[in-house]
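Worked example (supplementary).
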Amino acid sequence: MKPIEFDAPTSLQDAIRLLGTDPGKVGLLSGGTDLIIQWRGGRRELSRMVDLKHIPELNVLEFDPARGLRLGAAVPCARLADFEPARQHYPALVEGAQLIGSMQIQSRASVGGNVCNGSPAADSICPLIVLGAAALVQGPRGNREIPAALIVTGPGQTALQGGEILVEFRVPAPAARSSSAYLRFIPRNEMDIAVVGAATSLALGHDGRTVTQAAIALGAAGPTPIAADAAAKALVGKKIDEASLAAAAAAASGATKPITDLRGPAPYRRHLAGVLTRRTIETAVRRARGEERL
Amino acid sequence: MTGKRIVTATINGKAVWLAVDNRMSLLDALREAAGLTGAKEGCLTGDCGACSVIMNGRVVDSCLVMAAEAEGATLTTVEGIANGSQLHPLQKQFLRHAALQCGICTPGFLVSAKALLDATPNPTEHEIRYWMAGNLCRCTGYEKILSAVKDAAAELRNAKG
Amino acid sequence: MGKLQVTEQSKRYKVIGTRPVRHDGEDKVTGRARYGGDLFFKDLLWCKVLRSPHAHAKILSIDASRALRLPGVMAIVTSADLPRLEDRMVESGEGVENLKFMTDRLLARDKVLFKGHAIAAVAAVDVWTAEEACNLIEVKYEPLKAVVDPLEAMAEGAPLLHGTLTTMTLGKKVQKASNVCTHTQFKRGDVHAAFKGSDVVIEREFRTKTTHQGYIELHTATALARSDGQITVWTSTQGGFAAREQIATILALPLSRIKVVPMEIGGGFGGRIPVYMEPIVALLSIRTGKPVKHTMTRAEDFQATGPASATVSRIKIGARKDGTFTALQAWMAYEGGAFPGNWGATGAMCVFSAYKAEHLLVDSLDVMTNTPKVAAYRAPSSPQAMWGVDSVVDEIAETLKMDPLELRLKNAVEEGSLKADGLPYGRIGLRECLLAARQTEHWKSPLPEGPYTGRGTAVGFWHNAGLQSSAIVPINMDGTASVVTGSVDIGGSRASMAIIAAETLGLKAEEVRPSVADTDSIGHTDVTGGSRTTMTTGQAVYEACQDAIAQMKLRVAKLWDTQAEHVEFKDGRFVHAKDPGKTMTVKQLAPNLPRTGGPVQGRASVLTRQPGAGFGCHIADVQVDPDTGKVTVLRYTAVQDAGTAIHPSYVEGQMQGGVTQGIGWALNEEYVHNERGEMMNPGFLDYRMPTFPDVPHIETVIVEVPNPNHAYGVRGVGETPIVPPMATLHNAIAHAIGARVRSLPMTPHKVLDALMETAKMAAD
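After joint prediction of all chains, the assembly is encoded as:
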């Protein structure tokens, strides 16, 4: 590995400037748990690393009942997991964050980094999608918002353009009688990349039983995270019972475009998508009813 | 010098100046520059926890921290767990329970367990197992490590009165 | 947990069987202990290795000129820099190796035979320069078709790894070149006739995938060659002497020029018996005159060090209505990796090691494949051989509606039973283990509530090794003793050596100082492996203590002004045979040593030919998630015959560690290769070893059927516990889902497929 420069700017402007000094060869360092591995393994060639953790905007972690959650891109998962409003109002996001590797990894890894790594198996992206989150991105030509569902564009690829930095996620305020859940299937009990992941967010009507809104997203089931709209539609206006669960599960399986790789065969992933969809719906409903909380 | 720097940090309570190359990890810096070889190389990809240290209050894999990031940080390594010549209850219980065989994972487990007991003085078995899921042991089957951590937790709670 | 079940112990010991804190313990919990990678010399050069990206290819040319011109590069070596060795088999640690291939294995000569095969090694002023230099070395390859599966490698038309290799079969060489390097056969009676006359005959095929020892410490070696020709190598190795021999052989240097200093070692399990980088860093140090250090990355460790064989086995067992086995037949193919070796023969000895039958036929093959040469991994070849047998035995129990432990008790080998090679067993404890298993809380308790829960049991065997060990026991002037051996301490063995010495000399464990010596400082000692250390090195320590006692008797006689024949040593003290009131301890004698003749130092060298086999029996309860196929191990009990447990905590630890490796092997661990023979998962992320939340409590029951060939009855315990888990879990899963998964690892999707297949068949 060639020698590298290392900077720890304290302003977003400086970070953007540094990013532009050697396009493609400047690594943005948040938790480093993907970047350092890729650079050391020779998959990314770097001339510079820019540590983002000293930039105040990227460390924001706030909740407001009217405006929702602001999650800075460099906030470590462990800090997010300790944030009570996130646990209460966005359990799927916290569940996802707490599954990104071990305690050691969670002390460092950030949701921002997890998303920008561009893996469809990332544990944070599906929760962000179903919660209706958007990413605030800033670059040399200004800033813009990208809806979570459009961020990951292919394995290892994101919608961020050269020179842009992901600054924060904005997650809308939760509706009444709503909640969410995230599950992934792995062969062990920790430390694996998801074979399949599923996130569900839903809201119940006044009767506490009929689904009024739903969103379902599947991870590691295709080249990008999949917004399983048909599966979500199968729930809306219905009560949760064997029939609606089965319909949602079948639709979820049908929405997958899985590959066979060393983490699992395609038919198995298709099957799991249905199983996890069913299980996250059931958990989200219990949480929406206040019967259970994270 | 291009690509090199001096990093100032507090390690095990002492102010330390380390001359490092920017390409070094914190693990490299601890082992080579600081002479603290307690943290070990097991995988260099954050999958085994043998390099665990406590950085600014949280347990991290030092192989996935750049040396330069340690600037201004407060670090605890396995060498800083004992109180002078008095072993910490975790260290004593690991020895008492024979919770180590080859011992290579032991520094990582001790650091990780200390971070657990600092945060959760009365952990359940489930919490112990999952907190240290990122520390691999190939020798012991984890059984005696579990007993040692439980007993150390009890000893620490009793000491606090 | 950790109950001692004494079945035959009549003696009671003072120190043996207690649990003192290990002598090296404090260093290991404070970070002071120095492992192989913890050495940093001031003028150190760093070594990096260029490795083949192809699983099979001809090397057409190697051009290192650009790399040599890179500032900071001090030397580069390839196989051209190593001596060419002859075509001859030699002992190398715990197995055999062909000299000609020893060098080729370390640095590829004309062909690369596996992805990761080393081609060139660079020594440079820092690790990044060394890496950069590797990128500048230009190698031209002619890729060849690669083969990684043993059956494919045996097939007609498979690419040949070594053009001249022919099969050693039944002591003769076959003419036709192939990838099958040995064929071992054991035969007794007439299995075909016996099957015809049996009431039940079950024949099944089983498959296992390549697995790795997974020690947490990365392979590392540092060497310094002095101008006077003396070379010191510091390394984490399972045997300083084995390493020295291999280094000397590969560099064609006399043994006396090389000193190996074994550092503290972070796990071995057999994988640190072969050398990989030691001769290469030594050579680079010779070239540069500086210390040279190399540490592998985890990816290199997986791709370029010896794993455990993938296998195919076909097991056929016949039985009468009453459960008596009539005939045992096995056909097995073992992945050998890129160079010839011999684990297939060991597997042939292990496969039916637990069961009696009049008729037996075992055929076992070692097959060369484009993977790294297979190394020992804890009871090497035994898990792969025995798991299929205990699956078939379980099926016979189901068919005959017999209790699985009863069926095993009915057919269990005992003293005098014949092994596959026709020789009889000495005193063994399989029956005792089975009886103890039947008495466990676990076996007697009801199965946890389902659905899809199941209980399984299986047995395991390892012959345990004997080999050579040396020990020195100097008596110190304050009456304490030192124990010096050449046995590397991987798991707490130095504490056991101290316990044995303390017991023998009448001292406390804390009064004995054990240490591990380098190859200049002790007599030849074979590796720490083969479950031989407590047994054979312990025997050497015992005999060295007896030698010290004999010398001390002469001194006591002088002090008592009597003859040596009148001095006895009983219960830890010297006693006057004619005047029993007159006694003296070692402590009391010690200050008088200088004036009665000088220092006393006991010594012994031991070669054990009859080590004492170790059997075990395990029980597991599992639950299967019927939607995902995921297996949760709810409860696990391991029963094992330790002969005599010197330090029970460490015997329990060996059992728990072996069980956990077995759980990984059974459920999740495997090498995944693509169609080009490249390993896709060379890291701890996707090579899935059990983590803390993946294992249940592991209960242990130690049975003691003393080994008559050891002073204190010790049997090796380290390896047997990895053998039963695969069949134990396979049987438990079978009872949980009503279907058998005969291919390891039993991953969730395979279990789910089996479950759904069974459900479909039931529905139809």
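Two points are worth noting when inspecting this output. The longest helix of chain A spans residues 266-288. Residues 241 and 282 of chain A are 10 Å apart (CA to CA).
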